[in-house]
Amino acid sequence: MAAAARNRDVIIEHPNREKAASKATKATVIVLLLASVALIAIVTVGGWDALEGAKPVQLAYLAIYLVMAYYVARWNRGVLPVIAALAIIMAIFAAVATPEWFDRTKDGFTSPTLDEGVLGTITAIIVPAQALLIAFAMRGFAQAWNVEVERQVERS
């Protein structure tokens, strides 16, 4: 019995990662994270002169979302709830900030690099992007990417 066990190799498979729905969800989460990074970067760079205390928060979100995209690309399921939680916070920030960008068109405000209307529109687009990110991150979490199945392979 012991000799037979030594002649076998154990292969660990992740059956839920092979499903088309899991692959599509993974790709969608990565695309939404990268799109969010692009939108947040545009608002950050375009509104740099007008941003008060949000600069460190936005730069942190850019870095964290890029790191999270890397981990999702490696099938790390554990970051998906964190992504959803961060997306909730970003959606709230964006929903609050959107009307403020449109209000900056009045006299007496510092003009940002990009037009206030453009920044307001991009900020408004961040809200549904975060809602989609929340939905797909939680869908990915429910798909159980972490399930492992051991399979024994006979050595010759």
Structure characterization notes:
By secondary structure, the protein is mainly α. Helices cover 65% and strands 8% of the residues. It contains 5 helices and 2 strands. Strands 1-2 form a two-stranded antiparallel ribbon. It is elongated.
Strand content: 5-15%
What is the typical, i.e. mean, pLDDT? 88
Strand ordering within the main sheet: 1-2
Cα(first) to Cα(last) distance is 16 Å
Describe the main β-sheet briefly: 2 strands, antiparallel
Low-confidence spans: pLDDT under 50, at least 5 residues? none
Would you tell me the structural class of the helices and strands?
Answer: mainly alpha
The number of helical runs is 5
List the secondary-structure elements in sequence, H or E.
Answer: HEHHHHE
Strand elements, count: 2
* CA gyration radius, whole angstroms: 22 Å
Helical fraction: 55-70%
